[in-house]
Write a structure and sequence with these properties.
Blueprint lengths: L1 H6 L3 H9 L5 E4 L11 E7 L7 E5 L8 H25 L5 E12 L5 H23 L8 E8 L5 E10 L4 H11 L7 E5 L7 H9 L6 E3 L6 E3 L5 H8 L5 E5 L21 E4 L4 H7 L3 H9 L22 H19 L10
Helix pairs in contact: 3-6, 4-5
């Protein structure tokens, strides 16, 4: 795929895609000689005991066409919308139901105007859904809602939209007629399916539907076989999806915030994990100091040096401050030697 992107003049995207780390999370014991992975981007260490395992997060490309990053994005969407869906499932209005609606279009990914048609399709879906829902309840947004995502299908890479709708019954014939009007006669076929799917939980069905947003790549769980759209279509897909939101939310699902992240704690002692710069990892391994602790140590005796005269033909006459620098280094080394004698971890000593 990288070659296809390069050939299409998208070298920056190609470089990002190649730099993406599939195994973006690893653990590493911070011992002498430990080295970070080349793609390491973020490092978190235990504030309670620096000997505990560090968490290493490697670089990802975060491209919409990257199957690995797309799966992570899909998982975040499930975590965002699933709680609301489960709540509605257990305490919903007696006449409201969930359903999965598919709006089809005849436009392939190779259509020269596919980007415009892709964006316009979201508006067309919104026009159909809003008209039918308002006809039954003008205040539908306070009680009903839906999610909409796009997909370029496996057969012919045709554009279509998946909607998870919660609300009153919508007649398939009405949906088809409205869809034909909204698309100017370009499309009419609309499918309506139950939600959740038979034999699957709400979470499993939600994952299944949201994965349509990343269905350009699929790996069979049983055989491990990989199915993907042809590499030569990837530049077209990248252009069609650039700077677009592939998941739109309306009504009850609009504005649902990202779930709160749990406290980032050490898996061994439950102390807070602290992020440090990648370049500081070796210093942390050798000294046990967090950056703030090291700064406090070295700032105790701040140096006050006389600015040197940088002219080419005169000198300030001041002797170099070697003695002051040497004293500071000796103080730092004394602290390090003292810390190394401690049994309870250097990071605890201020």
């Amino acid at each position: 795929m990288a070659e296809a992107l390069d050939d299409a003049g998208m070298s920056k995207l190609s470089a990002r895609w190649l730099s993406c780390s599939e195994n973006c999370f690893t653990r590493l014991r911070p011992v002498e000689g430990a080295k970070l992975p080349p793609a390491a981007e973020k490092v978190y260490v235990c504030s309670g005991d620096h000997h505990h395992e560090a968490e290493i997060y490697s670089q990802t490309c975060d491209l919409r066409i990257c199957p690995v990053c797309a799966r992570r994005h899909s998982a975040r969407l499930v975590a965002r919308y699933l709680p609301t869906m489960l709540e509605l499932m257990h305490s919903h209005h007696r006449t409201y139901r969930f359903r999965h609606i598919i709006f089809t279009l005849p436009y392939p990914l190779t259509d020269p105007d596919i980007r415009k048609k892709h964006l316009r399709g979201f508006k067309q879906v919104e026009l159909v859904m809003s008209a039918l829902m308002e006809a039954k309840n003008p205040d539908w947004k306070s009680e009903q809602g839906y999610l909409c995502t796009s997909e370029f299908g496996e057969e012919g890479s045709k554009l279509h939209y998946h909607v998870i709708h919660y609300g009153r019954y919508l007649n398939q014939a009405d949906l088809s007629a409205r869809w034909e009007d909204a698309t100017g006669g370009a499309a009419r076929v609309v499918f309506v399916k139950g939600f959740p799917y038979a034999g699957l939980t709400v979470e499993e069905t939600l994952r299944e539907v949201l994965k349509y947003a990343v269905k350009f790549y699929h790996q069979d769980e049983a055989t491990g076989a990989i199915t993907a759209i042809p590499a030569e279509l990837m530049p077209l897909l990248a252009r069609a999806l650039e700077k677009t939101r592939r998941i739109r939310s309306y009504g009850l699902f609009y504005g649902i915030p990202e779930p709160d992240r749990p406290p980032h704690l050490c898996s061994q002692c439950q102390s807070e994990m602290v992020g440090i710069p990648v370049d500081y990892f070796v210093t942390f391994v050798n000294t046990g100091f967090l950056p703030l602790e090291w700064r406090r140590l070295t700032d105790d005796d701040a140096l006050h040096l006389k600015p040197a005269d940088k002219s080419s033909h005169t000198s300030s006459g001041a002797s170099p401050p070697a003695a002051g620098i040497q004293a500071l280094r000796q103080q730092q080394m004394a602290w390090v030697a003292k810390m190394r004698k401690k049994d309870d971890g250097w990071g605890k000593t201020k």
